[in-house]
Specification:
homodimer, 537 residues, alpha/beta, Rossmann fold, Luciferase, domain 3, GMP Synthetase, Chain A, domain 3, 9-stranded mixed beta sheet, 17 helices, 27 strands, 30% helix, globular, ligase activity (chains A, B), Fatty-acyl-CoA synthase (chains A, B), AMP-dep_synth/lig_dom (chains A, B), ligase (chains A, B)
Amino acid sequence: MMQTPLLLTQMIERAEKYFPKKEIVSRTESGIQRFTYKQWGERTRRLASALHKLGVREGDKVGTLAWNHHRHLEAYFAIPCSGAVLHTINIRLSPQHISYIINHAGDKVLLIDSDILPLIDKIKDSIQGVEAFIVMTDGEVPKTSLENVYHYEELLSEGDPSFSFRTDLDENAPAGMCYTSATTGNPKGVIYSHRGIVLHAMALGLADTTGVCEKDTALPVVPMFHVNAWGLPFASVWFGTKQVLPGPYFTPGILAKLMQDEKVTITAGVPTIWLGLLNEIEQNEYDLSSLRSILCGGSAAPRGMIKAFEERFGIPFMHAYGMTETSPLAVIAASKSYHADLPADEKLDLKAKQGILVPGLEMKIIGKDGEVAWDGKEMGELALRGPWIASEYYQDERSQDAFRDGWLYTGDVVTIDEEGYIKIVDRTKDLIKSGGEWISSVDLENALMAHEDIFEAAVVAVPHEQWQERPVACVVLKESSRGKVTKEDILDFLKPQFAKWWIPDDVLFMSEIPKTSVGKFLKRTLRDQVQDKIKQV
Amino acid sequence: MMQTPLLLTQMIERAEKYFPKKEIVSRTESGIQRFTYKQWGERTRRLASALHKLGVREGDKVGTLAWNHHRHLEAYFAIPCSGAVLHTINIRLSPQHISYIINHAGDKVLLIDSDILPLIDKIKDSIQGVEAFIVMTDGEVPKTSLENVYHYEELLSEGDPSFSFRTDLDENAPAGMCYTSATTGNPKGVIYSHRGIVLHAMALGLADTTGVCEKDTALPVVPMFHVNAWGLPFASVWFGTKQVLPGPYFTPGILAKLMQDEKVTITAGVPTIWLGLLNEIEQNEYDLSSLRSILCGGSAAPRGMIKAFEERFGIPFMHAYGMTETSPLAVIAASKSYHADLPADEKLDLKAKQGILVPGLEMKIIGKDGEVAWDGKEMGELALRGPWIASEYYQDERSQDAFRDGWLYTGDVVTIDEEGYIKIVDRTKDLIKSGGEWISSVDLENALMAHEDIFEAAVVAVPHEQWQERPVACVVLKESSRGKVTKEDILDFLKPQFAKWWIPDDVLFMSEIPKTSVGKFLKRTLRDQVQDKIKQV
């Protein structure tokens, strides 16, 4: 067989040649703009030639700080297809972390949305080595104290619309990179190779997974700075899929209207987005009959929400699981043919799990005593291996914690049922190890949050002399219920649902649970608070 | 990204782990047999261990001479997943070519269906180096003068059902090989690597191509000795697809009943098969409502047949194009989203073309003056490049004719329309070069065969002093029309349909057109006959 490399260049060339009429719909600060793949391809080549003129060469890192729009999609191909590395930066991180990331990656050029420019202005003294700042805007470049600032559209107007992309790169050459938050310390970088991105895009196109195809219209709500918007932009360009990019500061109403107007068939995002959308379509009427799949990842979607989309609105909902280190698609809640006969309730149970392994990857689940049984009960840490799984963190000593013996240890504790469907039950660091057994903090939290008086709840481990660790529940009551519910009420509520040794030793009432910038529980902080409270008692 | 190799081993392991209950339905000489993937996996491992005991090692060639059945499917994985090379042999070739192939490949072991054993018996003195003959049968091994003959089922009964497959092979290592007939001389061998087969199977799973998936039931009519049954067995195992293998000596009635009884969703074969099936379902009633796709390749399907399947029977029909050298899937007649609005007739025109390039490959079409225009008119030779395209013929000097500058020159002359859809118009060697212009023999033949008095017709080039070459039509009249139709009648029939210089210089009436063993016109022989006839005149 020929030794032709798997490169991103073939994706854009296919879109240009076979799908020049297909559309990219981009929502920017000034409204909806439309580009054909032909126009977009020319703009992308202009960008590549402009970057080349600015001195960007093979292996150089080019950072982006941008929302989901056509210019960001141009950067997605212009940078890697000319041999450089597309470094998408999470604009929601703290300024300190953003400057760490820019310096650690060694970004040579930054592409910045105009509304994000002030953030970079503020940290300019802490970042080194950036030779050019290119502002992506429909209008003028805002006032800035930065030097070497360029207007994206001006650069494009001077660019070459038939600039040649690289077809001679090694398929293992870096094409992209993305940093992921760490529990402690600075974010950790993951490098994506051309080979990894191409194979991952093929996996997204499989009829057995998300089946992204030319007949789709894809709307990635998941940010393009978050694991390449789950790879959707790459698959969509390759397959000639119409794309709808929702831009900055969208609301559930804006999303619903875009989906209706553009006849979106597939969309992807985190549960929070879908809760917002569900609320929106419950309040206002939209025709979302074109939607064939809502892809949901990032964290587990509540069963009730899945049920509402599927049964009330007839919109198929699909759980997926992955992380920055896995490109991200690793597990998907696709049903098997013989599941078609299951009662609705069991189908929903299946959909509430993360799903089965995607073709092309390998998996093992390591429990207390080696690989766990496929019984839906025994808990173990999920480890993954495959051609779109990272092998290390970029120049980071913390690699050795997660990457061992050729496997990525995900830090996620899961069970796996008889059919091979995985359910996430906890993070390894949040798991409570009591008397040699494992207790899932997530299972307890889900049970607590189903209590009618509870607004939110988290369960953490506290050290225990005899049992090593014991669970303690931290509960925020709904305002109307405060002072009316006791610790005993809550424990009595849990007792019928769990084994005796799972029941928390204590219930602490709090006014709020500390959270990360993306709304996840900050369990490390919570554990410290609980320790302090318990000491005070 | 991790450097995990793309190997066939991951396919069978996925089927065993995730789809142990799914079925393989196998029609053999003694009737229908059923195996779950779990049972089939154990049998496959038993076979691998048996081959190991017989001395088969990494890189060794193991030949198969067999129909489509479960044992052949076991060989499909047992051989490559233990590092050896699955060499499928076309049992329809001449005995001389079969012994050439066995010797040229250097097969160490042969797996032979019992009804094919007599053929090998006859050529045993001309084959060297085969150390063991394994007979695949439900019953006893037939009487044979061969030595070192083993009974497949006896070997399996002593085999190890948990034999370990190789996960440490180089992804570029050979996994399979297949010989293709040459115009002159011996067949030419193509080697398939693990990487090539895995990527090709992914391509088959794309929603944009054939979309083979777990929910399918696949029936490959195309023989497993013919380009790996177009890769369907590999994709089906990987995705956990139920397989129906039709075995030896099937009739259209047997196929139709299998499709009905097993609720087949996707099937694949050459036009001759589908003409037979169409005839069968026109005569007798079957419920084929489960069929979502008939894949058709090998040669062009008549438009009328496509129309009959689609419009009369509601069965979607899909053209595909490929060859032994291309694994084979290279081009597929998938429509684009905006084709949905075309009138039925234009949709049919589209379906009658071979289609557009499959994601993952590159293509160019070289005409008289370089790359051809995308106008559906200019003719050129199709050249292909990509990770599942062969790079050479196995130890064969003829490689340099077809493989040049990193491209495979297919020998097929095509046009390509504005949308990138390819239509095969001729073989390069059959194209008529008249006065510096190209004339498609196939176009003329199709026109002639639409004449109500003509049974079959072929058009060949004869040398011409002024024009280099000129077309001559060879026509076989229907019995009832013989003596009633003149040369002028036929030329008058053609004239309104073609440019003046396309009209054949002569029409020769013949009693039959010489054909190959698979029913294709033997144009080389025909050209010689025509030369002789013209000389005689």
